Fold:
Amino acid sequence: MKVGLVYDPVYLKHDTGQHVENAQRLEAIISHLEQTQLKQQLRLIKPRAASTEEISLVHDNQYISHIRDVAQRGGGWLDADTVTSPDSYQAAIYAAGGAIRASEAVMNGEVDSAFALVRPPGHHATSQRAMGFCLFNNVAIAAKYTLAKYKLDRVIIIDFDVHHGNGTQAAFYDNPQVLYVSTHEYPFYPGTGSIEETGSGAGKGTTINIPLPAGCGDDEYLQAFEQIIVPAARRFNPQFIGVSAGYDLHWADEIALMQVSTSGFAQLVKIITGLADELCRGRLVFSLEGGYHLQALAYSVKATFDVLLGNANIEDSLGQSPHRFKAPSITPLIKAIKEIHNLL
Ligand SMILES: [Zn+2]
Structure:
């Protein structure tokens, strides 16, 4: 399997200081991929800057200029938890361009699948607003670009970050060409993502939210993937799958209260690669969102690459949650979502 890695040190230049979303995240991932000699199994793909026209597929021009101007003036806080530095605009246009390049490389057949290791992350960014550490919505921009450039009709975005991707949901809420499926802790930041949010107008039914109670681990996530995401994806029959890959649902990650392990991530990724192989000739692009425990993040991204490469052994040196508390039963929730979306 030819697996692409999109990365560039430009992503380290988005300087957030002591913020939890910082450059050390990517440094930890890259150094782990190097130490384990996994990096040499990957095709390195250089990102490019997304053009203003490409970013405006999702964001208002006024908002794009605002982000550029704030960076030019030296950076600053855009909301209570989103900070920028002088080079943040450059990093952000390369993050969007990285997700685009990953999609191009897969669509052109340069690689079978790809993972864009970018920052700032994207899934909270709306057309007019930076929030939740996100400036431009990398995955949404890449999906719109891919739909237009390759004249596709159906793209799925699977978002397993522990937070709901409110920006991505909003970008495609009335768009029947994009099925947005999210698993996320709920109630939790940013507050959106209830089961009743299912899309509007022509896009009614093409937003599927799986809001999970705190405490869910590998078993509950597998249940949600197998019982909701798999049948929904088969019914939608995508031509391309994009993934908002956040790793903040790992048990060691203190930003949220989920209990997923590195092995659990590998199992979820296996389900996703299975869907891509079955439904869309393997066309699959991952883009990094959250994940703030450096070791858990690095190990779990490596496990993701191992699955994409078809490597049989998944290393999980952190193991299962040591303070494992009883996970909630999500069976009634799964049933309710199936009913709402006619997945029975
Ligand atoms: Zn997150």
In short: The pocket of zinc ion is lined by residues 161-163, 246, 248, 289-290 (CB under 6 Å).
